[in-house]
Amino acid sequence: MQKLKQQIQTLAKKYLSETIEIRRHLHAHPELSFEEYTTSDYIASKLKQYKIPFKQGIVKTGIVGLIEGENPEKKIIALRADMDALPIIEENKVEYRSQNNGVMHACGHDVHSASLLVVAKILNELKNDFEGTVKLIFQPGEEKLPGGASLMIKEGVLENPCPESIFGQHVFPSMEVGKVGFRSGMYMASTDEIYVSVKGKGGHAAMPADYNSPLLIASQILLELNNFFMRKEHRAPTVLAFGKISGNGATNVIPEIVQMEGTFRTMDESWRAEAHSIMKRMAEEIALQMGGFCDFRIEHGYPFLVNDEVITNKARAAAEIYLGKENVEELPMRMTAEDFAFYSQKIPACFYRLGTGNKSKGIISGVHTSTFDIDEQALEISSGLMAWLALNELNS
User: Fold this and answer.
1) Strand, helix or coil at 321?
2) Quick check: 345 pLDDT over 80?
3) Does 338 qualify as catalytic in the annotation?
4) Strand order across the 180-182 sheet
5) Where are the alpha helices (DSSP H) in the chain?
6) What CATH class has 2-186+304-394?
7) Can you give 206-256 as a three-state secondary structure string?
8) Concatenated DSSP letters of 107-119
9) List 31, 36, 68, 84, catalytic entry
10) Residue 2: its pLDDT value, please?
11) What is the C-alpha R_g of the chain?
């Protein structure tokens, strides 16, 4: 394995300029969730260039490729990258800034796809040096419910052949380039979208006897839900937060309806279901008590993400060999969510973080911001490490 590690490191360094070129191309041509047609065609063109067999058009834009080593049925693993971008106007003044106004790769999916392409190139060159099969999953729609992962699973991405485990990586701008992070067991929360419509009675603001303000009803709902769900005694970490409230009133106009949107996150499926019933009942009862009406709708989102302890611990140990123990960190649990969680609910999974920040260069912006960028030196690690983890798992 020592020789194989050195080969991978050499190839990752050799192909760094190509990885950067691919990442910059994808970054300059971002597409929204489930609209990644140009991205899909570009990825397909690269796989053709690398002479890697693939199938395109899964969930319209998804791609699945296969790299077969010696004795291909001995063990099968999957590697996943997402492809979609976000509805954000990019503010970076770089030559590869988004050419699609209002759309930006602000979550690093360009990094993930570029890395997996070069991982594929590396593994394909080494396919005579390992046994088993690597399944490559280029997935659409991570940023939008119901999540591209759930739809690809429905269309059979984990079948024919069936991988025994799956790996995914994600950029981490708060971690310095050169480092990676792992956590076995529970890692990321489930996520649900909440849409609330509160109806009262509108009227002239100067005549309070003639109206029943839905703004006050909505405010009471917000306060009581927040007081209940922000308690610490719930049986699982819990977040309920509302990020949007709107009512078409004015300084002297009380509206008929107020709309609110929020998110609910936790790490326990039975508590998740119970909490849905509690928040809906509380909101409806508060509105009724205040003489109004509440329609409380919950869009069921991604499940919690759990990293299989066995393969994640093996991956962490392999990363320490590849990068040095000092460059591998233990990650805390996060209340953020990822549709990679759908894979983790089906087969043993390892979802790890790639350090992409560089404080000395001013590369510090977080994901989902208009100034997000990466230190591109991370691309040498992203491609090399994932290739190394894949072969380490196949050989274990």
Assistant:
1) helix
2) yes
3) no
4) 54-58, 62-68, 133-139, 76-82, 165-176, 349-357, 180-182, 328-330
5) 2-14, 16-28, 37-49, 109-125, 148-154, 214-229, 269-289, 309-323, 341-344, 378-394
6) alpha beta
7) CCHHHCECHHHHHHHHHHHHHHHHCCCCCCCCEEEEEEEEEECCECCEECC
8) SSHHHHHHHHHHH
9) 84
10) 86
11) 24
193 carries an active-site annotation: no
For the chain, report the end-to-end CA distance as a whole number of angstroms.
Answer: 11
Q: Selecting from 3.40.50.620, 3.20.20.80, 3.30.70.360, 1.10.10.10, what CATH number does the domain 192-299 have?
A: 3.30.70.360
- Rounded Cα distance, 348 and 236, in Å: 22
Greatest Cα pair distance in the chain? 82
pLDDT averaged over the chain?
97
Question: Of 142, 143, 338, 339, which one is the catalytic site residue?
Answer: 142
25/69 Cα distance (integer angstroms): 30
CA distance 125 to 391: 13
Q: Tell me, letter by letter, the H, E, C secondary structure of 171-218.
A: EEEEEECCCEEECCEEEECCCEEEEEEEECECEECCCHHHCECHHHHH
- Alpha-carbon distance of 358 to 2, in angstroms, equals 30
Please tell me what DSSP assigns to residue 129: G
pLDDT of residue 231: 84
Residue 160: what residue type? N
Q: How do the domains of the chain map onto residue ranges?
A: 2-186+304-394, 192-299
Nearest to 320, CA basis, from 310, 333, 330: 330
Tokens of 31: 């597409």
**pLDDT of amino acid 9:** 98
Tell me the mean pLDDT in the region 327-348. 98
